[in-house]
Specification:
The complex is a heterodimer of chains A (296) and B (469).
Chain A lengths: L8 H10 L6 H12 L4 E4 L6 H11 L3 E6 L6 H4 L1 E3 L1 H14 L5 H8 L5 E3 L1 H7 L4 E6 L6 H13 L1 E4 L3 E4 L5 E6 L7 H6 L1 E4 L5 H11 L5 H16 L8 H14 L6 H11 L3 H10 L9
Parallel strand pairs in A: 1-8, 1-9, 2-5, 5-8
Antiparallel strand pairs in A: 3-4, 6-7
Chain B lengths: L1 H16 L6 H13 L5 H12 L6 H11 L9 H8 L10 H21 L3 H15 L1 E5 L2 E4 L1 H8 L5 H9 L7 H33 L1 H8 L14 H28 L7 H8 L20 E7 L5 H13 L6 E7 L3 E3 L9 H11 L11 H11 L8 E6 L11 H10 L2 E6 L13 H4 L5 E4 L3 H11 L3
The chains are: A alpha/beta (296), B alpha/beta (469).
Chain lengths: 296, 469
Amino acid sequence: MQAFHFASVDDVHSRLAAAGYLADSAIATTVFLADRLEKPLLVEGPAGVGKTELAKAVATAIGAELIRLQCYEGLDESRALYEWNYKKQLLRIQVAKSDDADASWSEVHDDIFGEEFLLPRPLLNAIRRTEPTVLLVDETDKADVEVEGLLLEVLSDYQVTIPELGTITATRKPIVVLTSNATRELSEALKRRCLYLHLDYPAFEREKAIVLSRVPEVGERLAEELVRTVRALRALELKKSPSIAESIDWARTLVALGLDTLDEAAVRDTLGVVLKHVGDHTRAAGHLKLGDAGRE
Amino acid sequence: MSGLVDRTVELVGAMRRAGIPVSLAEDIDAVRALASVPLLDREALRAGLAATTVKRPAHRPAFDTLFDLYFPPMVGTLDERAIVDAETPGGVAETRPEGDLAAAVREALRDQLRQLLLAGDDADLRRLAREAVAALGRADTQPGRQSYFSYRVLRALAPETLMAGLLAAMLGDAPRGGLAEQVARQTISEGLARFEELVDAEVRRLLAEDKGVEQVAKTAVRTLPEDIDFIRATTADVAELRRTVLPLARRLAVRLTARRRLGRRGRLDFRRTVRASLSTGGVPVVTHHRPHKPHRPELVILCDVSGSVSAFARFTLMLAYTLREQFGKVRAFAFVDTCDEVTEFFATDDFTEAMRRLTQEAELVWFDGHSDYGHSIEVFAERYPDAVGPRTSLLILGDARNNYRATGTTTLRRLAHQARHTYWLNPEPRMYWNSGDSAVRDYEPLVDEMVECRNAAQLQAFITRLLPV
């Protein structure tokens, strides 16, 4: 039985904080459970709330290497799991033909499906590592449905089956974090195997703390004003609500411009940092009564 | 420990009854989680159970309600006198007559609420909600029996009347009407909403102690968003539904694109195949194909937007428009007792604006503003003869309640004949069809299918079927 990475929920809290990630109670507990129950962790939520950051912070906190599998449309087995280096295999066959006609078929066959001709991809890499590993499967929802099927074996048993080589089982189970923006519903089978964490926009206090920790120059009072305003923006029905990433960018912008208060003029001039659609601009300007910000 | 396991299993049972799917494997995970989380930390316990059993954000509020019932933060009630004693120095409460006492309690609580909304954390607010319910929420329903009601608490405290005072306290003498006020308002209403939630939770907890958890759990959970009935949706439900429909449409679109890509492959792409074979010494190991060109149906939506079914029409239009890239062309026509084209209103991305223009600018009323399917269908066929062609899927939305008027079946038969497919989505439960002034019996034989479409889940199922691979 391998040792667990975290001693308690509080331990998760403090080590994530040391890695620069301010977790709330739900995040810390869920990460702790992922470690204890040895189950993959599926993190879902809107863009920019720190899903990928969480995986990185966990890796830093336990001193593990982060292996990342970025999902996209058209991702397949040969790029996620492993591939046979068939060019090298062809060469091997040609060499066998030319210089040693006696080489038996089975010999060549065994040879070309050996370790030497295997190209491991992220999933196989993560399974085979003996050092502590965090496997991040990023934007799982972008991948095609078959990739989920591919993930199931890896996620439930921490093993990979290669027909020619047999089953490779993890010697040391990696911590697996999957992220998703919920652009599509992931399959029930996948969800059932995972612990689920829905990351939403943070509570007021936590967001303020995050902004302050990332941009300390912004100062307590301005951070408070900024977070309040961002929350008011989120309450409007916008196409793209501002995320934590945007709050932080906004704080940086204000600091760079040397503004120390967030009045109408300041908001009007810097709204582009937080809202990235013209429609959203007009809407926000109307609701927050910013005057002519919509005509930018 | 075994008590805790039983409790968890009961909670999972209640979740399943409320419509949240929890598999046996997840149930087992939840119990395994109990062994790991610090049990004295209620929020950690909540997070642990949620992580193992709730896999959709839409199900989370229902879970939270049930969790509060099955794992209440405390047991028993507070004594109202104790509250006033704590609030008024010297414990003068003992000497006051009853009426004054109630007023004093109310004032003390209002005062506290005001302070907490200005500066206070969630734990304080929860404590206050508990005190308020103990002091103000109780009523004698029958002799010797007491019950708790959140409306009594909210009426006595009237939290919404605190807004003006709170705004004044927050803004100081800053000018009104601008950004600062909007932001302050938002902050305060968030706090108020949270307080009301906490009062509700506390009332449910006390009721559960009295009547048993199972009883309260049955009624405590609101209908899950995908199951909300279109016709009976309340304002809050409508807001909830709007939030459901957009991601639903997006997910649907992604899934359809994926399904299409998976479908039949097109003709062999000779050039790419030969090109790729070069790296394998001229042997075409991998063949490449041209992408399959999907058939995109044209969609014509003809929808009843009269009072009773307007919410339904709105969601279907919203869904259809979010999916418009999936169709060759989408045209929308609205009617009450006459028909007008509303396609252009939806060229914008702002759906609220589109609906506003639809109700204000479109000519939908000809005679008296009561649904007239017959006349609307006639007008549609006459004014837009080219709308329905052989590639068109015609979608009619409405409850077919025709106020006993002419049905226009001949025209509809002709339209259905011209169209590739004709579907009728009816937001009424199937059992009410053909009752009263419903003209379902006239229309149903004319269309390919009349589909019951009462909630978002049924709507999603239908749209998925409509689009070919």
